[in-house]
Amino acid sequence: MRSLRVLSRALNYPTAELLAQTDALKEVLIEDGFLKKRSLKKLSGFLDDLGAADLMEAQEAYVEIFDRGRAHCLHLFEHVHGESRFRGQAMLDLSERYAEKGLHIGVGELPDYLPVFLEFISICEPEEGLETLAQAAPVIATIGEKLKRKKSAYQHVFNAIVELSGAKLSKEEIEKAADASLPNIQTLDELDKEWQEPEAFGGAGDCGTSCDPMPLMPAQKDEFVGAN
User: Fold this and answer.
1) What whole-number distance in Å separates Cα of residue 224 and Cα of residue 78?
2) Is 209 left (phi over 0), alpha (psi -120 to 50) or beta?
3) CB atoms within 10 A of CB 60
4) How far is CA 2 from the centre of its chain?
5) Which run of H or E residues covers position 190?
6) Contact partners, residue 183, CB within 8 Å, separation at least 6
7) What is the pLDDT along the chain (228 residues), one digit of tens a residue?
8) CA dist 220 to 35, 73, 117, 188, 190, Å?
């Protein structure tokens, strides 16, 4: 599903190349026709704004949202397992899923990185891929809810992912999960403290969902993968 590859690209760190591709990304979403009109409109608006943004400002906004703290972390197992011992096994299981498809993680990459996960899903057989994506949907929806509360336009990317998964989720449960999830770190001092004290976040319970360990994908390729 090319739409998932577009959403994967939209969640990458902004580069000049990405900002120049936003019109092409929109065209793929329109051609695929998998998203509802309302979702497509919101996502198109996000891509328009991203394409028109100053590169440094877009990069700063991205770092502020996804890299300063764990509340919106793009590594999904962080929200499911935290620092628990189960995370390592989940990583291995996921890497094996990738290997079965001929995909291999690059040095320094982690298999639970959401953009990589979406790339993996996009090359699976539709039934298999959507079933796997639906398993991850509660975690993805919870991150999206937190982004909504932060008034971040990236929420529209997460909402689109959940919509494509076809998962039927309870709004109340997602809101409850967002209330109970990992703390949102506001300052560098808070971030340092959080990393020094792993007991401050308690693993799977932090996410507030019952999502099973889920599978994800390899290091990203440099070429644009959505237009063909």
Assistant:
1) 28
2) beta
3) 12
4) 16
5) helix 188-196
6) 69, 70, 71, 194, 200, 201
7) 899 999 999 999 999 999 999 999 999 999 999 999 999 999 999 999 999 999 999 999 999 999 987 899 999 888 875 565 666 777 778 788 888 887 777 766 787 899 999 999 998 999 999 999 999 999 999 999 999 999 999 999 999 999 999 999 999 999 999 998 655 544 445 444 444 433 322 333 333 333 333 333 333 333 333 333
8) 24, 17, 10, 28, 31
Q: Which two tokens stand for residue 19?
A: 């900002």
Expressed in percent and rounded to 5, the helix, strand and coil fractions of the chain are 65, 0, 35
Residues 6+ apart with CB under 8 A from 197: none
Residue 75 pairs in a beta bridge with 113
CA–CA dist 117, 138 (Å, integer): 15
| Alpha-carbon gap, residue 45 to 26, rounded angstroms | 10
Structure tokens at 64: 């502020």
pTM more than 0.90? no
d(CA 23, CA 160): 17
Q: Report the candidate in 132, 134, 211, 214 with the shortest Cα–Cα distance to residue 177.
A: 211
As given in the structure block, the two tokens for residue 60 are 């700063």
Closest CA to 163 of 10, 38, 50: 38
Are 142 and 135 in contact by the 8 Å Cβ rule? The answer is: no
Distance (Å, whole) CA 68 – CA 180:
19
Residue among 193, 114, 182, 123 at smallest CA distance from 154: 114
